[in-house]
Amino acid sequence: MLVNFWATWCEPCREEMVSMRKLQERLAGRPFVTLLVNYGESRLRVSEFVKRESVGFRILLDPNQDASRAWRVRVLPSSFLIDGEGRVRYSVIGELDWAGADAVSMVQDLLR
To answer: Which fold is adopted by the domain 2-111?
Structure first.
């Protein structure tokens, strides 16, 4: 599982979503889920963004940044790869090309 903390106003977050879509497509049929956690924005703002940008991921709202604090997120975007037993195996601070060879390899290692 990929857990990604983001916001609509965060340009690197929005750019990163493109590569997350490519990763998800590449792993179609595999037990891999991408979960986006919005950092402190209203349901309406996120909903409008999701419709406009055709975001195809499950999204959780974190209006008071409780989840962000619990995960110690201080920079957006921040991402965490979780293994099958629920442990954080990798964390990425800042934008990453999730469709790039290194990221795909990391994820595929977790799925083995």
So the answer is: Glutaredoxin (3.40.30)
